[in-house]
Queue: 4 jobs
Job 1
Amino acid sequence: MEKILVTCEMEVTLKMIGGKCKPLILDSLIRHGTQRFSQLMRRLSQVSQRTLTNQLRELEADGLISRTVYAQVPLKVEYSITEKGRSLAQILELMCEWGEKNMDERFELTDPQCTGQEEE
């Protein structure tokens, strides 16, 4: 296996959770539990199907989520958070809080993912 060169520990975190929608996927799985692809697509409406597919694959490869395939017709696939992924909950919450506190007039919140959400 080829090693990924990083300059510091923070870069490891960024490589695993950095991406167009990885923090949103992780947050959704932590808050709402196991979900199917279509459920994630509905919750993350601003993300394309291709991007979601790629980000899910990367999160699975990094051990942050697990993918379970049920051999039935039609095929059923579910995604859930792993313990390693759940360990990011505090970081994700802090990202939400920081974004809320530092949003200025340049930003317009069109699809809030974490502001004011309650656990379900």
Note: The first strand starts at residue 35 and ends at 36.
Job 2
Amino acid sequence: MRLDHINLTVSNVTEVSSFFKKNFGFTDAFEDNNAGMAVLSGDDGMHINLMKGSRISYPKMFHIGFDARTESKVNEIFERLKAAGLEMKPPEHTWGSWTFHFECPGGNFMIEVACEKV
């Protein structure tokens, strides 16, 4: 069974939506996306639902992860995000993968970009 969607509560729907579209290729799934709720569609058919909320609290280890497929793609994404001003530790080999983590702007949660270590 394929995972269809994940619902994330965020402080700034517009900022997070723009971030996912610019950096991870998501598109608006519906024309009526707005500052209160947006549904984004990935190229693999998965959806991310963004809902505006207050007093957002995710567990300490909560994050969402993107499979970049290759180490060079992980590095490319890292450099692009770094050039855009995000502060992150560089990618590293850990738990069988080449990976880095960062806090999603406007999102109150962590994102991991990784690929399987070959």
Note: The longest helix spans residues 71-83.
Job 3
Amino acid sequence: MKAIDHKGQFKQRVRHWADKLDVKIVWLGVRPMRNKWASCSTAGHLNFNDELPALKPELWDYVIVHELLHFFVPNHGKLWKSLMRAHLGEYETYESELKRVVHDIWLQQ
């Protein structure tokens, strides 16, 4: 039986959102990251924490959209928040859930 390719599905989801938000991705990586879920550069480089693909797709969307919006809005101000809400609705729910996941991971270490 073939194993589910969560990393491949995750990258596909990133490309889906990048197309939807009209962001040109130059580099897309999924790698170990100690202190954050994702990072991006103005050069079009995106990196995501390799623990993300194991989480549920709604949390993928939160992190993906969060990061992609930084190509247009560098901070987490009113514009960024309104764009998050426009694309994901009540995004704070996912934000809280990710904080719980981080707490659980921290407890296991």
Note: The CA atoms of residues 24 and 42 lie 10 Å apart.
Job 4
Amino acid sequence: MDNYPVVLTQTKIEHLFATPLIISELPADIAAEINPRLKELILAREKETPSQKASNNGGWQSDDKITAWGGDETGTVVSAICQMLDQITVHFNRTGTYRGGVAWKINGWANINRKNNSNVAHIHPGSFWSAVYYVATDDDEKSGGVFQAFDPRAGLPLMYCPVLRIGLAGYMTAGNSEIHRPREGQCLIFPSWLSHAVTPYTGEGTRISLAFNFSV
């Protein structure tokens, strides 16, 4: 066994059970137009209504009816996300499969995180897709407040050995988590079953985002 005299050939690697994180953006001119309005609207709502308590650890979270009170600006964000969902969702029926045309049921809310605020790990049960749109962020890479997605493969932690990694591209964080630092005007779309969190924000600014669930 020391010299491995037999060599495997015709090797290919198939990446099974991938988990999508779609990272997209509104056109810069549209984001620049609607984000200041959304920020003003959400900060005013914060003064008028108490925070909901869900995944938020500190900070403020609105009710989940932002599609009713969020104005045309929220409608613009929702419309853009739905257009993307039409491209990435396949509908099965007796006559075959097709893309798009899903009559989504949508609920959404606003989030405000300031210094030392975060969101604990959670999923969005009862939905198919979830999305986050970033109205106001912090460009300081040391200020935290990043989106954190956890490996969903339930059995993997039982097999995990801290001194070993799968030595293939994209697998170095297997059994752990991946992070993404968002920026204003950016939208993240992911399966609602994907456990995710927001790490503690240590900056001095005000981070504002919209979150949505899409179900049928």
Note: Residues 22-92+104-215 form a domain with the Jelly Rolls fold (CATH 2.60.120.620).
